[in-house]
Design goal:
Strand content: under 5%
Order of helices and strands: HHHHHHHHHH
Helix content: over 70%
Shape: globular
Radius of gyration: 22 Å
Distance between the termini: 48 Å
Number of strands: 0
Number of helices: 10
Largest sheet: none
């Protein structure tokens, strides 16, 4: 490979400086929202800051990946960390239960305790994943097996209340399992929200229509 010219070196230096400025700006902005993530906030901030460091022989693809990753981490920190809390509330049907219970104070206390216990279990599972020497693909396989295990229990639960977590666990099961009537609509809504309009409608929707069952 021939040595790069001074002009090319200067252009690469400017790109690195622009990336660092972008990362610094996102870091300062994200710091204001890190309080929403008391457990994982510091780790996310550290990852955000480190993403501005490119490898020695970096390419434009490395640069684009760094920008995308910084933006992802920034959004993770800006958005409230309430997915787990929402899932617990929905799974327990907390709003409806609050209107029915003769002891609303106890109902609120029970729900808050359930949220804390769920956070503790999630932290335990994440710690187990972090301690293993398996790669991310194997960790994903183990997590999917756990989701299938929970999904098999969910299909036998009556009543089964709708939450993002229950929907995703149910989605891991094969078609011989009977899911609730609300599942298809709820799963479609979850996918549409997570993927965004363009990917959900233009790509996923067409891929589902084109899928050849039984082949």
């Amino acid at each position: 490979m021939s040595p790069i010219s001074n002009a090319e070196k200067q252009a690469r230096f400017r790109k690195k400086e622009e990336l660092k400025k972008f990362a610094d700006q996102c870091f300062r902005e994200a710091q204001c929202f890190a309080y929403q993530h008391p457990k994982k906030g510091p780790a996310l901030l550290a990852q955000l800051q480190s993403m501005s460091k490119l490898p020695s022989a970096w390419t434009d693809e490395d640069l684009e990946f760094a920008y995308a990753r910084i933006h992802q981490l920034r959004m993770d920190l800006i958005n409230p960390d309430n997915d787990l809390e929402n899932d617990v509330h929905n799974a327990r049907d907390s709003l409806q239960e609050f209107g029915r219970t003769p002891n609303p104070v106890k109902q609120v206390q029970d729900t808050e305790r359930a949220i804390e216990d769920t956070r503790a279990l999630a932290a335990h599972l994440i710690s187990a994943l972090e301690l293993t020497t398996l790669g991310n693909g194997e960790r994903a396989a183990a997590l999917m097996e756990a989701m299938r295990h929970v999904g098999r229990s969910l299909v036998n639960e009556r009543p089964l209340h709708k939450s993002d977590a229950t929907v995703v666990c149910l989605s891991t099961l094969p078609p011989n399992y009977q899911r609730p009537d609300w599942f298809s609509e709820a799963f479609a809504e979850w996918l549409a929200y997570r993927l965004g309009q363009e990917e959900a409608k233009n790509e996923l929707g067409q891929n589902i229509l084109d899928y050849e069952y039984g082949l």
